């Protein structure tokens, strides 16, 4: 097998995927240092869509989906196809036929920095797809690419086996070896935010950090307040 296709890599564990899937992408991005979120051009075909799983990375030339077909054949159940389509939206790289195969094989979903088509049918399938847009043009199937190698997707570095989680807000990628350490922080952040929301609903709407931040920014002078 050509070295352009890497079959063997360590995936984030199913147990960690299940734990991570309880959180919003925004929570995981925050605890990761506000890093790992893909560019907003890549979004869900429908806001209800959500996915979580280890990345199976795919690098393709714009407008060509040959290596995506190969990746579907190699993917394991639970994998997320993460495809660097170079942000090209002049033709769709995937549609109903390929998405049906992905769903049948147990692939957890698709994240693609490129276009798809048959969006209404994919929505009716209720299969999670996150793309940079749609286009009715079909792709070619002629150009080699790579599978399992590090890629850049939506401005974020993605390695095969990293955790990918996506929801209505977008997509976040966590390095595989950081996931276990970040999940407790995510749980704490959820609890802290719930407590703050409860305070706001009780009438405590002031942000205790705001005045100091405004002074640091030079908006307020020492001793001044809003």
Proportion of β residues?
Answer: 25-35%
Helix content: 25-40%
Work out the helix count: 7
Task: Give the SSE order as H and E letters.
Answer: HHEEHEHEHEEEEEEHH
Total strand segments = 10
CATH architecture: 3-Layer(bba) Sandwich
Q: How far is it from the N-terminal to the C-terminal residue, by CA?
A: 66 Å
Structural class: alpha/beta
Radius of gyration: 20 Å
**Outline:** elongated
- Low-confidence sequence ranges: none
Which CATH first-tier class would you pick? Alpha Beta
Organism: Ramlibacter tataouinensis (strain ATCC BAA-407 / DSM 14655 / LMG 21543 / TTB310)
GO molecular function: metal ion binding
Cofactor: a divalent metal cation; Mg(2+)
Pfam family, one: RraA-like
Structural write-up:
Strands 1, 2, 3, 4, 5, 6, 9 and 10 form an 8-stranded mixed β-sheet that branches. Strands 7-8 form a two-stranded antiparallel ribbon. Helix content is about 30%, strand content about 25%. The radius of gyration is 20 Å and the shape is elongated. Strand 2 (about 50-60), helix 3 and strand 3 form a beta-alpha-beta unit. The protein contains 7 helices and 10 strands. Helix 2 (about 25-30) crosses helix 6. The termini are far apart. The longest helix has 23 residues, at about 180-200. With about 230 residues, the protein is α/β, with parallel strands linked by helices. The chain has a single domain, classed as Ribonuclease E inhibitor RraA/RraA-like (Glucose Oxidase, domain 1), CATH 3.50.30.40.
């Amino acid at each position: 097998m050509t070295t352009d296709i890497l079959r063997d890599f360590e995936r984030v564990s199913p147990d960690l995927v299940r734990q991570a899937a309880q959180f919003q992408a925004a929570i995981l991005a925050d605890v990761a240092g506000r890093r790992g979120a893909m560019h907003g051009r890549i979004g869900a075909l429908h806001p209800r869509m959500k996915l979580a799983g280890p990345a199976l990375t795919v690098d393709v030339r714009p407008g060509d989906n040959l290596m995506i077909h190969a990746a579907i054949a190699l993917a394991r159940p639970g994998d997320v196809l993460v495809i660097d389509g170079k942000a090209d939206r002049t033709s769709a790289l995937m549609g109903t036929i390929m998405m049906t195969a992905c769903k049948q094989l147990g692939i957890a979903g698709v994240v693609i920095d490129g276009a798809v088509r048959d969006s209404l049918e994919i929505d009716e399938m209720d299969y999670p797809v996150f793309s940079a847009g749609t286009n009715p043009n079909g792709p070619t199937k002629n150009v080699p690419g790579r599978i399992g190698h590090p890629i850049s997707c939506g401005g974020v570095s993605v390695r095969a086996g990293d955790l990918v989680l996506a929801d209505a807000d977008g997509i976040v990628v966590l390095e595989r070896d950081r996931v276990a350490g970040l999940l407790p922080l995510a749980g704490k952040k959820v609890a802290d935010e719930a407590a703050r929301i409860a305070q706001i609903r009780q009438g405590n709407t002031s942000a205790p950090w705001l005045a100091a931040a405004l002074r640091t920014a030079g908006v307020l002078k020492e001793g001044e307040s809003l």
